[in-house]
Amino acid sequence: MPPPGGHYSAATAFGDLVFVSGQLPVLADGTHDPTAPFDDQARRAVGNLLAVLRAAGSSPERVLKVTAYVAGIDHWPAFNRVFAELFGDARPARAIVPVPPLHHGYLVEVEAIATR
Q: 29 pLDDT exceeds 90?
C-alpha cells in the first residue's frame, strides 16, 4: 500500500473498529498515474483499501461501510463491477458520491469502516 500523502494515518483503530482513510489509486511506491483508465483506477483504489484493511487485521468480509467518491456518475457501473469483483461475496453498506475530479486528477477514492 502507498504511504499516506499528508498528515494522517492510512487507518485508525478504536476497539474492534477500523476506520480506513480515503484511498486514491496511488501506486504502492507512492507515484501517480491519473491518466489510467477508470477501471484500473478503481481496481487500484479498492486494492489499496483492502491492503490497509489487511494490515489492520481486517478483511473484506468484516467491512461494515464503504464510501466511494467517483468523478462523474457515468463511472458508477464500472465501479460496481470492480467493487463486486474485489469484494466477492462480501456486501457492506455502501454510498457512492459523485464528485468533480479528485486530488492529482484521479477519478475515484474509497474509504471504509470495518471490524477486526
A: no
Contact indicator for 52, 11 with CB cutoff of 8 Å: yes
The whole model's pTM is what?
0.94
Q: d(Cα 90, Cα 45) in Å, to the nearest integer?
A: 17
Query: Which amino acid makes up residue 58?
Result: S
Q: What is the C-alpha R_g of the chain?
A: 13
Residue 110: name the closest of 58, 61, 87 by CA. 87
Burial-class residue 30 by CB neighbours within 10 Å (0-12, 13-18, 19+): exposed
List CB contacts of 14: < 8 A, sequence separation 6 or more: none
